[in-house]
Amino acid sequence: MRFAFNQEQFQEMMKEWGLRPKLDLDKIARLPFGGFVQKKDVPLIRDTFSRHREELQAAIDADPTGEGFIKDMFLCELENHEYSYTGTSEDALEALGLSYEDVAANPKLIHGLELAEKECQLLQDGMWM
User: Would you state the torsion angle of the CA atoms of residues 5, 96, 86, 102, taken in this order, to the nearest 10 degrees?
Assistant: First the structure.
């Protein structure tokens, strides 16, 4: 999987793959946000993403209270998506493949998200040690 945001990056990507930029377009597939993948790799990528979703769900299921993995999962994504600046968890949830409805339907997720949001606030305030 590669990303190209202009013609020069696209040509470099194709060169790295050993493909011709104008003649081998049938050998690649476009992904959202400037992503590309060789069609021959689609099954591998699909299987990898599926495995990642299963591993994430297993880790969520293994956290009995939301105070372990779940809180850390949310904290990581909140920090990655500048929660302390934006004050919204929407982008973090989207990155995890969750909606507000998903979180609201699961007490462990609600608790973990609340803990992570509080920790982000404490970190921003310089009170977390």
Answer: 140
Q: What is the mean pLDDT of each run of 10 residues along the chain (129 residues)?
A: 96 97 96 94 95 96 98 96 88 94 97 95 68
Residue 57 lies in a domain: no
How far, CA to CA in Å, does 29 sit from each of 2, 20, 82?
Answer: 11, 14, 31
Position 50 in a domain: no
74 in a structural domain: yes
Tokens 């880790």, located at residue: 59
**Residue 57, helix vs strand vs coil:** helix
**H/E element holding 30?**
strand 28-31
